[in-house]
Amino acid sequence: MARVVLENLTKKLGKTTIVDNLSLEVNDGEFVCLLGPPGAGKTTTLRMIAGLDSQTSGNIRIGERLVNNLQPSERNVSMVFQTFALYPQMTVYENLAFPLKK
User: Fold this and answer.
1) Does the global pTM surpass 0.90?
2) For residue 7, what is the enclosing H or E element?
3) Residues 93, 82, 52: CA angle, nearest 5 degrees
């Protein structure tokens, strides 16, 4: 795992500011949670780190590399999307294995 640094990261959609001047450093080996109400910009921040959304301004560094203009495939980052489509009658293992079965 590499250090991730967000420097004054901002994302705007039209006149709406989704993420406003966020600076954050996550060191190698640290575990960090983003908490907040719906619409706070948590998923948008993760999507910008992964390269799925572009930032309006600010910098994203992974390791020592500035990745602002790199494609998602060039960032060596993974993301698990949130979903509420779980089967409550199944265990965690069964929910994960379900789409892999024929």
Assistant:
1) no
2) strand 4-13
3) 125
